[in-house]
Amino acid sequence: MTTGVSKVQTNPYKGAFSSYSQWRNDKLVRVFQPERKLSPLAETVHDRFRAHIADSDFPCIGAKAALSANFYRCGFYQKMNEPDSTVGLAHDLWEYAREQARFGTNYATFVACFAEPKLTDEQLWEDLLWAQLQSLHELDRAHYNWDESVSRNPQDADFSFSFAETGFFIVGLHKASSRLARRFPWATMVFNAHAQFERLRQQNQFERMQQTIRARDLKLQGSLNPNLSDFGKQSEAKQYSGRAVEENWKCPFHAQMRETRKPEK
Questions:
Q1: Quick one: which of 72, 79, 160, 87 has its CA closest to 113?
Q2: With contact defined as beta carbons under 8 Å apart, do 205 and 245 qualify?
Q3: What's the pLDDT score for residue 230?
Q4: For residue 232, what pLDDT band results from cuts at 50, 70 and 90?
Q5: Superkingdom of the source (predicted)?
Q6: Sign of the dihedral defined by the CA atoms of residues 4, 159, 61, 19, in that order
Q7: How far apart are CA 100 and CA 72, in angstroms?
Q8: N or C: which end of the chain has fewer CB within 10 A?
Q9: Each residue of 141-150: pLDDT tens digit?
Q10: pLDDT value for 258
Q11: Domain boundaries of the chain, sorted by first residue
Q12: pLDDT value for 101
C-alpha cells in the first residue's frame, strides 16, 4: 500500500472544523490541541459509541480490540455532507491516515459521527453515505492519487475507498439500520485501513476473525447480512451502508483521476 501522507507533510485541509480526538486518561480530548474543549454533544456521542462497542452482544471483535487498546481516533461534525463538515472530516481523516501507520496494530480505526441528520430510512442513509464519500473524494483528488493497491471501480472485487492514497473499508451506522450491530442514534462512518485486512490475511488470522464475527452477529440478529462475502470475492462497496442491497444494485460512487494543476506563472 502506498501512503500518500508520507509525500505531503502538511495537512492540505483547513482545521477550523476539525475535531480530531482521542480517549486519554479517561477523557475525550483533541489529539493536537488538548486545551481546546470539545462540545458536550461530542462527548456524549463518543460515550454512547464506546458503550455500543463494549456491549457484550456487539459482534465485531476487531472494533472491541481497537477501543480496549485505545487504537482509535474520532471526530464529531455538525451536518453530514455539508461543506464545512466535509472539510473537517477530510482534515481529520488525513491526520488519521498519517497516524495509524505508526500504531503498529491491525485493529486501529477512525470514527466519524455527525449531529445531523437523524436518519429514518435505510435508502436515504445509503444515498447520504455515498454522497459524503463522493465529496471527500472530490477534495482528495486535488492532492492524491488513488491507493494503487486497491481498485477505484466500485464494481470490482478489489475495490476499496481511497483517501490520501490509503484504502479504507467503511462501516456505516445509523438510527434506522436493519442490522442491530449498526444501529446507533447518530449517523456514523467508521474507517478501517484496508492494509490491516491484508496483513491479517497474510498472518492467517483474517478467516478465523471473520468466522467469529459472523457467529456473534448471527447470535445477535438471527441472520447474517446477505451482502457479506468472503474477502476479495465481490466488491466490498455493497457492505458499506449496511442495507441489504438488490442483486442488480449499482454503486453511485464515481472515482475520478487526480486533478493536475498548471504551475502558476
A1: 79
A2: no
A3: 54
A4: low
A5: Bacteria
A6: positive
A7: 8
A8: C
A9: 999 999 999 9
A10: 82
A11: 13-239
A12: 84
**Of 237, 109, 107, 232, which is closest to residue 161 (Cα–Cα)?**
237
Candidates 160, 180, 182; CA nearest to 172 is 182
Helix (H, G, I), strand (E, B) or coil at 64: helix
Place of cell 439500520: 177
Residue 7 has pLDDT above 70, yes or no: no
Q: 109 has which bridge partners?
A: 72
Please tell me the total number of residues recorded for the chain in this structure: 265
User: Which one-letter amino acid corresponds to residue 53?
Assistant: I
- The H-or-E segment that residue 112 falls in is strand 109-116
User: End-to-end distance of the chain based on CA atoms, in angstroms?
Assistant: 35
Q: Cα(125)–Cα(242) distance, rounded to whole angstroms?
A: 9
C-alpha cell at 204: 492467517
Distance, CA of 244 to CA of 219 (rounded, Å): 18
37, 58, 127, 206, 256 from 121: Cα distances, Å: 33, 22, 10, 32, 29
Mean pLDDT score across all residues of the chain: 92
Task: Look at 232 and 32; give whichever has higher pLDDT.
Answer: 32
Query: 17: helix, coil or strand?
Result: coil
Res 261 pLDDT > 60: no
What CA–CA distances, in Å, run from 123 to 50, 164, 243? Answer: 26, 28, 8
Name 72's bridge partners: 109
Which cell is 23 given?
Answer: 480517549
d(CA 179, CA 173): 9
Q: Quick check: 232 and 158 in contact, CB under 8 A? A: yes
Sheet containing 187-193, strands listed edge to edge, beginning at the edge strand earlier in sequence: 28-30, 21-23, 72-79, 109-116, 187-193, 166-173, 161-163
Q: Which three cell numbers stand for residue 113?
A: 459521527
